[in-house]
Amino acid sequence: MKRFENILYVIERAVSQQAGLARAVSLAENNQARLTLIEVIPEDMLNRSLAPKGPSADELRDAVMAERRAWIESLIAPHADRVDCQVDVLVGITFIEVIRAVLRDGHDLVIKTAEDPEWSRLLFGSDDMHLMRKCPCPVWLMKPDDKPNYQRIVAAVDVDVLRTVPDEQVLNDGILDLASSLALSDFAELHLVHAWDAPTAGFVGMWSNDPDTTERHIIEGEHSRHQVAMHRMTFRLSERIGEEAYEYLSPRVHLPMGSARKQIPQLVEKLKADLVVMGTVARTGIPGFIIGNTAESVISQLQCSVLALKPPGFVSPVTLQ
Fold first, then answer.
1. Smallest Cα–Cα separation from 143: which of 165, 102, 112, 164?
2. Per-residue pLDDT of the chain (321 residues; tens, 9 = 90+)
3. Which residues contact residue 231 at a Cβ distance below 8 angstroms, ignoring those fewer than 6 apart?
């Protein structure tokens, strides 16, 4: 069972906080974890010109920050008997200050309600995407009207059947561990999806005397290799969580043929999934190359909550300085 020790909940004032905060409190309580609530106030909001006889800039800043702190404390007050919570109000750009808080205070999970901008069909806004690209710890972005308990959870993994990639294996195992832990706690269905393709099959007509048969054999062989890879992955999962828990979950494995950026959103929509747990693929240690094109394309099409993980050794381009 995956356990968190230091959870950071980010206030997104423009949308309802009820569902996201309830989930954060429940997770902190069940994990006996520290919980910190923060809100980031834009700098320009505190630097507006004032009337000649109005408060000074410092007085305005202090008043606004005190008001925000009091409001956040009123949000957490109904849960005060369940979890100890720290409240902090910061000034700056939201995603940068959140990541700096993670680096400074060692948070191991960021939870935030998605921005859900009214002017866009996308669920996730600019700060949301920046966090998924650059935050070094897992980021859980929730729909404003999220369910208190999920019914269907999708874990999206990527497998290289030609070679063993240690970082990829660690990331996939982390995705499955988190997804299975949440499915067990919410009594939810767990669906595992890996999209695959057989690109060489499209060229058999250039050299084969029987292209239809050859293409079928290539596709069947490729499908079999991915089945074996998924079987190994689920076997490792059963070893980690125990045979009894694995049998209770009975994960459904989906192996759609085609592009992940097309197949995964289609499956998520078909299942009416409440949460997608997935990795953001990065070249570790190279600032600026943060999220893979496929992952970004998948996330931009989703209308459900997302829990995004980074591969081992990920280095955020955001620093404390």
1. 112
2. 457 999 999 998 888 898 999 999 999 999 999 999 999 998 876 665 555 666 677 787 888 889 999 999 999 999 989 998 999 999 999 999 999 999 999 999 999 999 877 667 788 988 999 999 899 999 999 998 899 899 999 999 988 776 666 778 899 999 999 999 999 999 999 999 999 886 555 555 555 555 666 667 777 888 898 899 999 999 999 999 999 999 999 999 999 998 899 999 999 999 999 999 999 864 444 443 345 678 888 999 999 999 999 888 888 999 987
3. none
Q: Are 219 and 256 in contact (CB under 8 A)?
A: no
Q: Which residues contact 243 (CB under 8 A, 6 or more apart)?
A: none
Six-digit token pair at 173?
């195992």
pTM of the model: 0.89
Q: Cα(110)–Cα(49) distance, rounded to whole angstroms?
A: 34
